[in-house]
Amino acid sequence: MTNPTTTVGNKPAGESSNGSCEEMLVAPRQHLLDLDDLSAAEINDLLDSADGMLEISSRDNRKTPALRGKTIITMFFENSTRTRVSFEQAGKILGADVINVTASASSVSKGESLLNTVKTLQAMQIDALVVRHPHSGAPYFIANHTDASVVNAGDGTHAHPTQSLLDLFTVRNHIGDMTGKKIAIVGDVLYSRVARSNILAFQKMGAEVTVSCPNTLIPDEWSLGLTLGDETGFGGLKLARNVDEAVDSADVVMALRIQQERQDAGHLPSLREYADRWGINAQRMALANDGALLMHPGPMNEGVEISSEVAHGAQSVVEEQVRNGVAVRMAVLYTLCAPGKSSRIGNSESTSGDEA
Amino acid sequence: MVARKLAITGGRVIDPAQGIDRIADVLISNGKIDEVTSGSTGSTPDGYEHIDASGKIVSPGFVDLHTHLRDPGQEWKETIVTGTRAAAFGGFTTISAMPNTDPVQDSAAVVDDVVRRSAAEGLIRVLPIGAISIGQKGKQLAPMGELADSGVIGFSDDGNSVDDANLMRQALSYSAELGLPIINHAEDKKIGAGGVMSAGTVATRLGLVGVPAEAETAMVARDLHLADLTKARLHIPHISTVGSLVALRTAKESGVDVTAEVTPHHLTLSDEWVYGLKGEVPTTIGSEAYDTDTKVNPPLRSRDDVEAVIDALSEGLIDIIATDHAPHAATDKVCTYNEAAHGINVLETAFSSVFQLVDTGKISAVRLIESLTAGPAAILCKDLGSLKKGFSADVVVIDPGSKWIVNPEQFESKSVNSPLAGVELTGRVVTTIYQGETVFDLSDVVASAGAKQ
Description:
The structure holds 2 protein chains of 2 kinds.
Chain A: E1 8-10, E2 24-26, H1 40-57, E3 71-76, H2 82-93, E4 97-102, H3 114-122, E5 128-133, H4 138-143, E6 149-155, H5 161-175, E7 182-186, H6 193-204, E8 208-212, E9 238-239, H7 243-247, E10 252-255, H8 260-264, H9 271-278, H10 282-285, E11 293-295, H11 308-311, H12 318-337, H13 347-350
Parallel strand pairs in A: 3-4, 3-5, 5-6, 7-8, 7-10, 8-9, 10-11
Antiparallel strand pairs in A: 1-2
Chain B: E1 5-15, E2 20-29, E3 32-36, E4 49-52, E5 57-60, E6 62-67, H1 80-89, E7 92-97, H2 108-121, E8 125-128, H3 144-149, H4 165-178, E9 182-183, E10 197-198, H5 201-206, E11 210-211, H6 214-230, E12 234-236, H7 242-253, E13 258-262, H8 264-268, H9 303-315, E14 320-321, H10 350-359, H11 365-372, H12 374-380, E15 395-405, E16 424-434, E17 437-441, H13 442-452
Parallel strand pairs in B: 1-4, 1-5, 6-7, 7-8, 9-12, 10-11, 12-13, 13-14
Antiparallel strand pairs in B: 1-2, 2-3, 5-15, 15-16, 16-17
């Protein structure tokens, strides 16, 4: 993926009279596939844009014409409530036409290949494809075969960049500069795309990230108790020996969904034991810094990775995360699709690998 | 064979089976080797056609123990015709057809069909491999005696490892009487369940489920113990891990009747190739990542594993190079990494890719050629892979300085699934002679390519 380093100023249409939306300085880019190729400055620009979007999405009349005439397709090959609806809501507030495609109700269920599905949608003149797929790398594959902007809404166990942006946005709104802040991520690091994207994202913003999970849920080449080196791609990540060590003095505690399949595949003796040894509860939250935030990307298994008491307690920002998700996705869609932008780069070269 | 008389003069003749490495002429008549002269006379005997090999290497035709021809059953990927053409272009004059066809080569009827059509349609020699179990299902032994009578050179269930240790034991024991090797794909599929590439840093960064090296090592160790128990011949295909090599060394030292092969890709490509930058490690993951042409089983391993198999081949712990040529259609590779089929199209790049190891001093030219000729011929127990008098006149001429850029669209193979597309390689087969006849000549290919324009 190539991105010119020049920046352009953009202002969402319909914002000039209000003046609440500051001018955004965002590097033109065609796709959002992960956050690894965004600088901290680019991420902050997106979050600044989301500030304005949050104001728009909170209005009584929350329709703007910023993306009027643009067509966005959400293409979900996995079940999802919040992410799909969040993208749909974001697109609609910005005035785009949003079409939802789900694998089970499309020709994918008839065996149509991903390539042909993408080519079919491409032929209908679309501006953005928001993709959730169970296979890591699927959005990269799609980006090679379409002129549209591709937004990764979660690929396999690889990345979930808009979740990370909304998590960063939520934390920034509460504690501002994240430099040196301790972020504890507790859960299924091996299979979690949220964990991977958030480790990279929070580290980019200067935070110190510590993870805690059973030894069966980290990659074999990692070891509990270590701080990872740069060669891993997650340099500086701390692997706590136990959950208390991770949560101790944390500024943010993030619990990740633990799936029943992990028990079935032998990663865990039982969800009961997981709740006992890794579940986030009031006792464990007390180890964190005063005023620490409790986050969860959802959907929650209350009583497993997070107790109901803390999930709905004073430190929980879980619902705020969902609300912020719409604003962050508005910022992403606007940045990629706003009319009149010269940012539709790479179109001519993106089809060259299309040998089929 | 026609009574063609051919003199290949002035080349560096390397024939490891005879300990020959000298400038000499190779004389051929009636499809057989007449003589490797003691030195080059610089002249061509009367009545002989002439190939000037000065500055070139002259070697016995290569012998491959591990080829997927996809015929019968998947002719859209490869056929006996296209597969043997690809082999000839890569310098191979003998290949061994893996039994994972449709129907499976688990009966004399299917094997006889492959043998008959290979003789009629094939450009070079095709030797069949029979299945270990009926339908390669790992439940009941295939009729191994009947298959041996049909000429199979060994038994394999190909990508289906024989999971049942007792069935493996019985297969080894039964084949011991036949004198043929069992070739078992060694992979404990439970250990690497769901894995699509080698476990490690690259898999973790890309979010792809990794197969630990131990999935191979564990089954290699099991098979070596069972070969010891049964006193049978075991041939380990595409060995690829440090741990497997440790087990192999121990077994060889204790006298187990075992041989092992390594593929060109496991000798030259690491798991970092999955990033899609021809081995470069990127700082950020780009849209070239998840290169499905790198998906293969066993998966491309760590750099440490690559260095270890090179050293093991060089010292002879690994006996031979085999291609595991596995052509796949575009639809099997233009998809997500999870969906992509396992396999690399190898025949036409095999020699050039491993010749890099000679250029970089990691292996001698003589040992490399031995691992492609005398080595596999010894495992086959056939009069092949050498320029001895009376042997089939199977010869390749190699230009060690020729540079070329791999373009799979120009492959003779029906498929294009090569991760080496666009890579420049040095050293190339320029002429292949099978039973005294020229079956490939690079100058003809270049001429015909020019004529097309």
